[in-house]
Amino acid sequence: MGRYVVRRLLQMIPVFAGATLLIFLMVNVMGDPIAGLCGDRQCDPATAARLRAEFGLDQPVWQQYLTYMGNVFTGDFGTAFNGQEVTELMGTAFPVTLRLTLVAIAFETVIGITLGVVTGLRRGRPVDTGVLLVTLVVISVPTFVTGLLLQLLLGVSWAWIRPSVSTGAPLGELIVPGLVLASVSLAYVVRLTRASLAENRRSDYVRTAVAKGLPRRRVVTRHLLRNSLIPVVTFIGADVGFLMGGAIVTERIFNIHGVGYQLYQGILRQSTQTVVGFVTVLVLVFLVCNLVVDLLYAVLDPRIRYA
Amino acid sequence: MRGATHARWAAGAVAAILVAAACGGGDSVGGAGAVLSSSWGDPQNPLEPADTNEVQGGKVLSMIFRGLKRYHPATGAAEDMLAEKIDTSNSRTFTVTVKDGWTFSNGEKVTAKSFVDAWNYAASLRNNQKNAYFFRLVEGYDRTHPEDGSKQSADTLSGLKVTGERTFTVRLTQTFSAFPDILGYPAFAPLPRAFFDDHDAWIAKPVGNGPYTVRSYVRGSQMSLRTWDGYPGPDKPRNGGVDLKVYTDNNTAYTDLMAGNLDLVDDVPAAQLKNVRSDLGDRYLNTPAGIIQTLAFPYYDKSWNKAGSDKVRKGLSMAIDRKQITETIFRGTRTPATDWTSPVLGEDGGYRAGLCGEFCHYDPGRAKQLVAEGGGLPGGQVKITYNADTGSHKQWVDAVCHSINNALGNDRACVGSPVGTFADFRKRMTDKKMSGPFRAGWQMDYPLIENFLAPLYYTNASSNDGKWSDERFDDLVDRANRETDTARAVGLFQQAEQVVRDTMAAIPLWYQNGSAGWSDRLSGVRLNPFSVPVYDEIRVG
Question: Which positions in chain A touch B258 (Cβ < 8 Å)?
């Protein structure tokens, strides 16, 4: 187990280096960010040159990358164009997005798995057909439509919620945005759980358990569900990373000042430091999530052993 | 030692917040003490006066600073604010007298030195101030801010001299009679010592001499401004303060206004324009702002700068149905342009409707004829370059092309050519890589006709992105700047504008309006010529 984790951690290093290099190059390809800082006017050449030197943009790209990575390892993620430290931006943005992601994951797990179990055990019944139909609709409607619709209905027409999230982004205000963010994944979790459950119901160990005369509840929770959840856990685990980075649309609709907002702002202003910094952290989150998912396999399925 | 100072600072800040909170106890009651909330965008730069060159940062500066002059919210006329008088005998050396009795909100007196220090800071290359070039006419600028980026040989402008507690002199490198009138631009604001002594703390919570003070500032999300009771100026706020909230998307701000969570939006999204009247009734405003949109041309490209090119440009101009585009796409939030300035200048200020004449009039037949006379479109097709990331430019560029194609009877006469980001778009201009007409927007810095012409068409001026150059124009602008009589100066500028027209240096498209919508709690809302709400006049409740 320990050796396995160490091996996995070592594997992360090339993935991490490659991903950050790619992002760094991509942001660089977009062109000279200083040119956009002076509005509809040419920056005076002397100031532009000084700004370039200050942000290290006057050096060759490879050197910029090495300097940047060197700084990252000492915890210095650089400064955004508005003079704020990127670490400061992260300090405000990540807690907000993390809360939003947790709300979304909670919805996915609780509602998604429950509905999946219900439909999986009642295949072909009206409940099953109904839920399947709803998930189909949710999957096919883009997030921004669901988001704007819920915002208008709940926020303006019925005035149940605030249409936008306030600065502090308290948990209560994140429930609807979290639901919107989770909606598509939630539908997939339902379908995944249902399919997995339906397949395993016919397996030998379930028949044995039933034949032993175990109560139905125990058969479902201990035997059936535990084995059926493996693909679902993979999906949800990978989704944590995906939701954290992919909340741009939801964050924009509900005016949440999280990671998506900072990334959007950073891309618009071509702030290499902001974009690379945030994506670097997201890459790390993704890698760690993947590792945790793989370790969870062993917990769920005793046959899987990591040497 | 450092730690101790910080702790004292923090204690002071906490005390200040507590006091402010105690004073602002009646926030929700309404009346003179009530606070309104207003939409905002994250400022692109730190909120230093000489480093802020866009409207969102400018919004805050207009609340926490007052300069020597202030532009009248309705007429745009430059009126004395902190200036008691600005004397000159030759339009080159100016003696400024600062009014007595003004202080910064931290109690420090506003003196001649507050101005001179601020201006020296702005003009010094090492401070990276993006508005430094506003001081380029002051003597000594070439030494504090060498053009080639070499080491500066002076820290202060030799043209600025403090001559008394409230007087200082400014010596320019050339005569510029309108100099006093540009002093309302935020870059010319005075700065307190706190700005220089503890710069980081000042940036975190700016202190100025305007009618509002910053109570708290969470960067990237909200700034709470409160009325400063000790404000000595005549434009005392009629409300208790303003909470500026950052919105990533102006649609969300509009939704928040509809839901009653926000009092004022100063940018009604294009998608909502068709129902804004039914949503808000007369709580919606659509007034001219000092912004003009034009199509500029790359004069460094031979095919756009040869004999007869002006006819092609005039033909293109006449092929654009401005009226239809402004009505259908912008729903009346823009007005077809008939000169190269803006209606906010007023007739006396140099705006002259119809100066463009027939060339800004839609006439497909004549358009086709002119383009043919001028030798046809270079390469058989024009590509209008624009940046696709902001401002929904794609819609109108496509409409303009559609109009040109129809007029010229050629489906391939005009296509839009999007560039991914604004920075890249600017970069191509700087590198002279434009191959055809491109979007050029201009938002005035100060309401003077000079600002609509000199920066855009003077040889090698900072926003002359097409590198257009004409000796007659340069000469007329020089003469106008020397002219001490305002009316005569304006006349000369208009003559210069006629040179722009005769060669169709840039095609004027439309004047942009500012728009605002507000909740029923507010009254007295209006926008100044810079399309920023006049916050001090707004009443709550």
Answer: 156, 163
A83 close contact with B: CB closer than 8 A: yes
Tokens 């500012």, residue located: B514
C-beta atoms surrounding B365 within 10 Å: 9
Q: Which residue from A minimizes the CA distance to B44?
A: A82
For an interface test with B, the pick among A38, A89, A94, A157 (most B C-beta atoms closer than 10 Å) comes out as A38
pLDDT tens column, B199-238: 999 999 999 999 999 999 988 889 999 999 999 999 999 9
**Secondary structure class of B316 (helix, strand, coil):** helix
- A126 touches B at CB < 8 Å: no
Residues of chain A numbered 1-40 and touching chain B (CB < 8 Å): 30-40
Q: Taking CB atoms and an 8 Å cutoff, what residues of chain A touch B220?
A: 84, 89, 92, 257, 261-262, 265
Q: How far is B490 from chain A (nearest CA, A)?
A: 24
* Residue B102 CA: distances (Å) to CA of B81, B85, B113, B209: 10, 15, 13, 8
Q: Over the stretch A180-239, which tens digit does the pLDDT of each residue have?
A: 999 999 999 999 999 999 899 888 989 999 999 999 889 888 888 888 888 898 888 888
Per DSSP bridges, beta strands B35-40 and B382-387 are unpaired
Structure tokens at A209: 């358990």
Task: Look at residues B253, B98, B117, B119 and name the one whose alpha carbon lies nearest to residue B166.
Answer: B98
- List of chain A residues whose C-beta atoms are within 8 Å of the C-beta of residue B46: 82-83
Residue entry with tokens 């810079």: B530
Q: Look at B248 and A251 and tell me if their CB atoms are within 8 Å.
A: yes
